[in-house]
Fold Pyridoxal phosphate homeostasis protein.
Amino acid sequence: MNTCLRSVPLLPFWYLRSFQTRMLTTTQLNLDSVRSQLNEHVRLVAVSKYHPAESVRECYEHNQRHFGENYVQELEDKANQLKDSCPEIKWHYIGQVQSNKIPKICSIPNLFCVETVESEKHCAAFEKAAAKLNSNNKLKVNTSREEQKGGASPEEAVVLGLYVRRECHHLELNGFMTIGSVENSDKIPNPDFDVLADVRKKFAEAAGVDESSLELSMGMSSDMDTAMKQGSTSVRVGTAIFGMREFIKPQWSLSLQDMKKVEESSEEKEDDSFRPISMKCGVFEDSKGSAYIEMGKTKVLVEVDGPRESPSVASQRGKITVSINEENLRIRAQLESAISAMVHLDKYPRAEFMVNISILSSSGGELAASILASALALVHAHVELFDIPVAAHIIYLPETKSFVIDPPSPLSPSAISITVALLPNLNQLIYTRLKGAVSVSESREALSFACKQSLRLYSVMRKTILSSFQNQPKTTL
Ligand SMILES: *Cc1c(COP(=O)(O)O)cnc(C)c1O
């Protein structure tokens, strides 16, 4: 008895406290593990997209200073939230640049580097915006090269670097960045990384500077080792630190104020963009759930009814039944499977939901529009989804090896048409359709391009759902 008692150590209060401060969060432990894999003098940029500001703070408190973000709005929100508590933070913008967002990017507090400058047009706009800021520090830019659409070719990247040095006195060329192509992502060594190293070499020769003064930003969670072996000086790592990008339930966590901001920023139209989109979640007061979408001239209305107890549903899982106007019957089954994949059907045993889709006008992209509108109508009916889906229709033109996003019909006869729908936060494809003859590598590239483009609709979907919840009197489920 006595011995037993004595073997329980009496921990003094100060010991407990110091133990607590030494407890690391999972994110901090992950950060340590990534750091232990870094070569000497390689910078780690922690990519925090889709993860909350709180996770960024955890890393900051563990001495991480450089962070990367892909979306202007998300970056701006986090930068503002953290500017007082994390004053030494250094933000990298690593998402695609849209010209109309450049002044906004430049005004972000503690912005360190824009890694994705692709054209003289971008440089000139950054120069103009940076000049206005009147800052003593030059804005750092990396010219980025990407196999997918967008990005400078190796030759262009060199020329662009020279342009920055010659013409842009408020910018400083920091180095070069690449994501690398999908095809090469598993290759060791990765030819795309060699190409980037060569871009730096050529630029250094042309500009008469030392190569080591320029950064090579390449390597992510899955290929940082390869990238470092091929000379990377800055790796951008997300998943290995923060874990899988999970669903932040935005519709319940964003304040009304935040929503306004999303609204202001959603107006964008460039050549490589979607047609004008408008959507509304909740159009009829008397139906259970409804939504309406216009993508260019394509117009889709969806009504949801249910859950209804159905004798025809034998299984424990619920069931989605789609009805659609007769001209479009050929896509009914496809829609049914895509929509079923996004609903948490296990939660609705023996129940049936009727999803009535009316394609009011067809001008390309009906499948994508129907999937998006159905999701909105389901959310409006308070049906539980795994995630807010996104969807896109693109075409690939093999002759010119180029993509067109959200094209209006009719399509050129040789065009390859691709529609995808995915649950972005689960990294899950719920629908793909590829029409036309392409090689395997082309189809992979087209698919990955379509997925990337579809993600651009995420904030619009989110905004639409938000505004419907804000305008609606609280309903009980
Ligand atoms: C998301 C992202 C990363 C991080 O990718 P992980 O695979 O999560 O490490 C790096 N670079 C860019 C440009 C990204 O968009």
